[in-house]
Design goal:
2 domains, CBS-domain, alpha+beta, Alpha-Beta Plaits
Length: 200
């Protein structure tokens, strides 16, 4: 499962020149704990409700802005980052969320709650499904051909995830109804297709 499948695409952002009281009010209104800080359409920082609470009293006495307290180089992920890696970053850096960047463009936000939800879904899927990770040519007909082989070998595809592109190839994560993967893997490999990994 990739970050792109679980991230929030409805972006609530703030500019660096806003007061911290305005940022806190925006978080309360939208019931969120993290805000990307933008300038000229680019991410320039990241601010959390914890950051704001720590300066709240000071902000009542002075003119503290978001720029004064934001994290200027936040830990981030891309849409193609696996949820396992995103969870590792959250745990390692003890953070509650991260911006999702495509190059220097903000495309989403992922939080600890998103990750917990993803892992609960995965745990449920693991009990009732199997997974094949394939490396195929990066074109629709390659996956269509693989799907026909899987079906002919007795597999029922539940869903499909797209992984990163490597040259002219792409990783495909194929979730199947719980099945004996041996005959399916054998059928795929007989046709010259690469099975990278399996989860029985």
């Amino acid at each position: 499962m990739l970050v792109s499948e679980i991230m929030s695409r409805e972006l609530v952002t703030i500019s660096a020149d806003k007061r911290v009281s305005q940022a806190l009010q925006l978080m309360q209104q939208r019931q969120i704990r993290h805000l990307p800080v933008m300038a000229g359409g680019r991410l320039v920082g990241w601010i959390t409700s914890r950051d704001l609470r720590e300066v709240l009293l000071a902000s009542m006495m002075g003119k503290i802005t978001v720029a004064d307290v934001m994290i200027k180089a936040p830990i981030s992920v891309t849409p193609d980052t696996g949820v396992e890696e995103a969870a590792r970053l959250v745990q390692e850096h003890k953070i509650g969320g991260m911006p999702v960047l495509e190059g220097d463009r903000l495309v989403g936000v992922i939080t600890m709650l998103d990750l917990i939800g993803a892992f609960l879904t995965l745990l449920s899927l693991l009990k009732t499904s199997s997974r094949l990770d394939l490396l195929l040519e990066d074109k629709p007909e390659a996956m269509e051909a693989a799907a026909k082989i899987i079906k002919k070998a007795g597999g029922k595809i539940l869903n499909l995830g797209l992984g990163p592109v490597r040259g002219h190839q792409r990783s495909y994560y194929v979730r199947l109804r719980k099945a004996d993967l041996g005959p399916i893997v054998e059928a795929l490999e007989q046709q010259g297709l690469t099975v990278q990994d399996i989860i029985p």
